[in-house]
Design goal:
By secondary structure, the chain is α+β, with helices and mostly antiparallel strands. The protein has five helices and three strands, in the order ααααβββα. Strand 2 and strand 3 form a beta hairpin.
Length: 135
């Protein structure tokens, strides 16, 4: 999110609109980033792929962040057998759909996130140190 916000700040032309944009959801900010890259004639297929990957990572991150951690092992204080119990409430289904995200799946999400950060730095050099708008 930090790199996304910095890049939007650097590519936008209006500090007031920037301040409004960064209050939006991450997915909306990714869409704004894509449009700014396009307007600046910087958008490449690699940028498109990065934006799509960031949206998917954000979707999976929300599943992790908004669901409980559970374990089938009594006394599992180390969390070695724990998992995320993803509960999906949909109007047409009762009981709710449930899925388990285990440690290897969570590790894969972390790896994808790290790879996306590295791609962001490679594709948009300077994203970590862009300066804010001047007054």
């Amino acid at each position: 999110e930090f790199f996304t916000n910095n890049t939007i700040r650097a590519l936008s032309k209006d500090s007031i609109l920037f301040n409004e944009v960064i209050t939006q959801s991450f997915s909306k900010r990714v869409h704004v980033l894509r449009k700014l890259l396009e307007r600046s004639e910087l958008l490449t297929p690699e940028h498109e792929a990065l934006c799509a990957e960031m949206l998917e990572i954000a979707r999976q991150r929300n599943i992790v962040a908004h669901n409980p951690i559970a374990s089938n092992t009594p006394g599992d204080v180390e969390g070695m057998n724990s998992y995320i119990l993803a509960v999906r409430h949909r109007s047409e289904s009762f009981p709710p759909e449930r899925a388990k995200l285990n440690r290897p799946q969570l590790g894969a999400l972390v790896s994808r996130s790290n790879a996306a950060v590295q791609d962001f730095i490679r594709l948009i050099p300077g994203a970590a140190q862009f300066e804010p708008h001047s007054p």
